[in-house]
Design a protein that fits this description.
Length: 155
C-alpha cells in the first residue's frame, strides 16, 4: 500500500474535527474554496493572505470524504455525484450538522452584512494575488519557450 492508502485507512470512520464541520457548513451555503479558506485564519510561510488556500480547503474536504466513507464516488459513479453535496448530505443524515447550523451561517452571509463585505474583500484580495501569479507564470513560460526556440550555437 502507498502512504496515501495508509493515510486514508487511518482516517476512515474517524470523527470530523470542528474545522471540518465548519468547512462543510460553508460548502453547504455555496461558498467557493477561496471564500471558505478566507473564513479560516492561517499563519506561516505558506499562507500568503493570512487565510487557508483553496488547496488547503480541497485537502480538508478530501479528508472529510474519507472520514464519511464517500471518497470513491467520483471514481465509481459514472460522473453522476458531486462529492461536496454528498458530504453535506451525509453530515445532515448523520446528525453532524443541522438546518439550524446552516441558518446561522446564512445570517453571516446576508447581502450588506459586515461579515459578507469582509469576506468579499478578502476573496478579491486572494483572486488578485492569483492573477499576479498567473501573469508571472505566463511571462516565465514565454521566456522558456523563447529560450527553447533559440538554436544552440556551434562550438
Amino acid at each position: 500500500p502507498t502512504i496515501r492508502d495508509l493515510h486514508d485507512l487511518a482516517l476512515e470512520g474517524e470523527a470530523l474535527s470542528s474545522d471540518e464541520i465548519e468547512t462543510i457548513l460553508y460548502v453547504g451555503t455555496g461558498l467557493t474554496d477561496d471564500a471558505v479558506g478566507a473564513k479560516f485564519p492561517s499563519e506561516g510561510k505558506r499562507s500568503k493572505h493570512g487565510v487557508l488556500s483553496d488547496r488547503a480547503i480541497q485537502a480538508r474536504l478530501r479528508n472529510v470524504y474519507i472520514k464519511l466513507g464517500i471518497k470513491d464516488y467520483d471514481q465509481n459513479d459514472g460522473g453522476i455525484f458531486n462529492e461536496r453535496c454528498r458530504a453535506v448530505w451525509a453530515c445532515l443524515r448523520k446528525g453532524i450538522i443541522t438546518l439550524d447550523d446552516f441558518a446561522l451561517k446564512e445570517r453571516d452571509l446576508e447581502p450588506g452584512s459586515a461579515s459578507r463585505s469582509a469576506l468579499e474583500n478578502k476573496v478579491e484580495e486572494i483572486k488578485s494575488g492569483k492573477d499576479e501569479y498567473d501573469n508571472v507564470s505566463a511571462e516565465w513560460k514565454a521566456q522558456t519557450d523563447k529560450f527553447k526556440a533559440t538554436p544552440a550555437k556551434a562550438q
